[in-house]
Design a protein that fits this description.
alpha+beta, elongated, four-stranded antiparallel sheet
Length: 506
């Protein structure tokens, strides 16, 4: 019994050595082009003058200031209610769930593709029995033959001499990384959208309150004027003008009431669940978020850290690897099928001396004529790479424009707010003086109505401008890559040559 065991051990050792050798020989060449990140087709910084003032000098950045993409959203957003709403959205939002599931799907697909680089070893046990009739038997008698076998081997394992399988694996890995960055981008967008929707609701509720107060005040004035009209001290023209103003305010109340309901519905959709009424704002807070630091020399290279830009680059890397796979298809492919085991007519004879069996079936496939199919596949891969280069550059340009727009708005917001605040105060003063002159019989009520409408419009504009200012902070935070971290993460030096994270193959 010792001899068969030793024979089987030698057989398994030789098989393992063959597999190890073929695996080591595989992937000797990589025909993919050397990857080089395309140059960013944008200026080096956003320092562009607006009315003679550099846009980049909006907020001085202290030496210990945190970049926007490292600033946690819990520190960026100051209102505790808004923080709770954002946390609920990150837990329940369906788009974010789909993005997370797409990562898992891409991870599984990568593992499937990468598995083709390694031999698939399988064990097979077979048992067969056949009966030969007497008239077909050489002995003139019916015979029954049986065969038992146990084998372990590999089937059609491709030796990846030219890196075809390696490049397909790399392409699948980049697709996985693309989904990772896409989820980050979805996360960042969701944080910004929830905050903007929350502030929009706050603004519309404040506008609704203003419309209700205006409607109530004008209704009281209209009731007094109607009684004065009955006794002949107020003209019909003044009374009709007042009624028109009252009805306009009433229409505004109805419009803003509807808008507030829509804002709540939009917020619920983003959160993915009902929102506690206690977490909903009643008016715009003075400051809902901090202002990200934007130094004068803010470099456009920060865009390369944005997840949408990183996702576009992973797509480009995947296309680069596909070119290597398309080139490898021009060369011969070698496949191995081998197995070793024991065979016998009886179960008891499987492990006896001399029962060892093996087979080795190498095959080679050499492309000779394919009507230009392989060349067309390579051309397609190169064109796809060129398309992805253009898409990557367009993504950077779009990101640059988003930051530039946000900075351009920020550059004049303080002046606009100050001017509108003073204009609103002046309108209120004009209305009070006009109302006093009317009560003293100096002016007609039409002058007072014009002043009142001007004040109402100025108050509405000021509320909208305050929303614009706070929304701009969120936009600037988002376009600079902020919103991914929950808590502030100070950047740490990455070890030189450290590889990016990739899914395991377990």
């Amino acid at each position: 019994m010792t001899q068969p065991i030793q024979q089987s051990s030698i057989l398994w050792t030789r098989t393992a050595m063959v597999l190890a050798l073929t695996t080591a020989l595989a992937g000797c060449a990589n025909l993919a082009p050397d990857y080089a990140r395309p140059s960013a087709p944008v200026p080096a910084s956003w320092a562009r003058p607006v009315d003679g003032k550099p846009v980049g000098t909006l907020a001085a950045k202290a030496a210990d200031a945190i970049d926007a993409d490292q600033l946690g959203w819990r520190e960026f957003f100051l209102d505790p209610r808004l923080q709770q709403v954002i946390a609920a959205a990150l837990e329940n939002n369906r788009d974010l769930r789909v993005a997370a599931l797409n990562i898992e799907k891409a991870r599984a697909q990568y593992r499937i593709t990468d598995a083709d680089r390694y031999p698939a070893i399988s064990a097979t046990g077979t048992s067969s029995a056949s009966r030969t009739p007497a008239e077909l038997s050489t002995s003139g008698r019916a015979t029954v033959s049986r065969q038992q076998s146990v084998t372990v081997g590999v089937s059609a394992y491709e030796l990846d001499f030219f890196g075809r399988l390696k490049n397909l694996s790399d392409a699948a890995l980049e697709t996985y990384q693309y989904q990772v960055e896409t989820r980050r981008s979805t996360h960042i967008s969701l944080v910004a959208e929830v905050a903007t929707a929350w502030l929009t609701l706050a603004s519309d509720r404040e506008l609704l309150t203003l419309a209700q107060d205006t409607y109530a005040s004008q209704s009281r004035t209209y009731a007094l004027s109607q009684r004065s009209h009955d006794i002949g001290t107020v003209s019909g023209v003044d009374l009709a003008s007042q009624e028109a103003t009252v009805q306009a305010a009433r229409a505004d109340v109805a419009s803003y009431t509807s808008q507030v309901a829509q804002d709540i519905n939009a917020l619920r959709l983003l959160v993915g669940a009902d929102v506690d009424a206690a977490l909903l704002p009643t008016a715009l807070p003075e400051t809902a978020s901090v202002l990200p630091a934007t130094p004068a020399d803010l470099p456009s290279q920060v865009l390369l850290r944005r997840p949408d830009v990183l996702a576009a680059e992973h797509t480009l890397k995947s296309a680069n690897a596909d070119i290597g796979a398309a080139r490898a298809a021009f060369f011969p492919s070698i496949s191995l099928t081998a197995d070793g085991g024991t065979a016998s007519r009886t179960l008891g004879g499987l492990f006896k001396a001399g029962s060892g069996s093996w087979s080795f079936v190498p095959s080679i496939n050499l492309p000779i004529f394919n009507a230009g199919s392989l060349r067309a596949s390579l051309d397609s891969a190169k064109i796809t790479r060129d398309i992805d280069v253009a898409s990557y550059e367009k993504t950077i340009q779009t990101a640059f424009r988003e930051v530039a727009d946000a900075l351009a708005v920020r550059a004049t917001l303080d002046q606009r707010l100050d001017a509108q605040g003073k204009a609103t105060a002046a309108s209120e003063k004009a209305f009070r003086l006009s109302e006093a002159r009317y009560k003293n019989g100096i002016d007609s009520y039409l002058t007072t109505l014009v002043a009142q409408r001007t004040l109402y419009s100025a108050q509405q504009t000021l509320i909208s401008l305050r929303l614009t200012e706070q929304s701009n902070r969120i936009t600037l935070y988002k376009v600079l890559g902020g919103g991914w971290n929950e808590d502030t993460a100070r950047p740490t030096a990455r070890p030189q040559g450290a590889a990016s994270s990739s899914p395991d193959r377990s």
